[in-house]
Hints:
Structural class: alpha/beta
Radius of gyration: 21 Å
Oligomer: single chain
Number of domains: 2
Distance between the termini: 30 Å
CATH architecture of the largest domain: 3-Layer(aba) Sandwich
Bound molecules: zinc ion
Largest sheet: 6 strands, mixed
Strand content: 5-15%
Strand order of the largest sheet: 2-1-3-6-4-5
Order of helices and strands: EHEHEEHEHEHHHHHHHH
CATH superfamily of the largest domain: Zn-dependent exopeptidases
Low-confidence stretches: 229-233
Shape: elongated
CATH class of the largest domain: Alpha Beta
Amino acid sequence: MKIGINCGHTVSGQPGCGAVGFIDESVETRNVGRALMRLFTNGGHSVYDCTNDYADSTGANLAEICRLANRQPLDLFVSIHFNAGGGRGTEVYTYGGNPFREAADVCSAIAGLGFGNRGVKDGSTLYVIRHTSARAMLIEVCFVDTDDADKYKNIGANRIAEAIYTAITGTAAKPAAVTEYTGTNDILWELHHRGIITDANLWMKKCSADKNIYWFCRKLCQYVRSKNRAEYETDEYEDIHDIAWDLNYRKVISNMPLWEDYMKKDANVYWLLRKGLHWCRTH
Length: 283
Ligand SMILES: [Zn+2]
């Protein structure tokens, strides 16, 4: 099928961005939406990204989303949002509140993960429902400002995306295998992008001087790229032994004494492993 997917609003902090409570709507719509795009692409469908990151106003953002959706014929347009205002549960908006199969199934599939089911509702006044030509649904996954947010964090964006995918297509989601990066540049860029390292040049030098460091960065990069489940934990491990133990448990490293030794001798390596592990534990 040809599906248009919109990750809600603009990026966080910009004009037109989403609601912020215990979780940030603009961040989580992208986590769910991008995971959903990957699942549809892996399933052999044509995916059209209808997300607009930067706009001068909410109106400009909404108009651009509809322009992206209406550039090609679509079988379905899906806009992902999170609700605010103190309620609980999942709801899906369609034109006239039409509970067409995909809309009703998406609503009960997300609710089935542990949220209340608020049902399919009339979204005729919502801009992206009214101004898109394709059959459209706007999903309010759950509320950002109640204990829904805790449930969401435990479930994770990937499982939400899998539930939406399965509900729409009627087939199980197939997450793609992630090809391992081998180039030092690619590996370090990825670690930098995820906030695990700050000085890519420093690590460039260390990787070329020491193959253990290169392999650690490579395996860590592979782990963080292929990890599938969001399990949020907030406390950061500081103890060398705890860090090594957890990385070993996750099979990112295999020789604990070697890495404990590295961490004792080299503060940069300590911070690399500490920040790398923290990323693994919080995504
Ligand atoms: Zn929203």
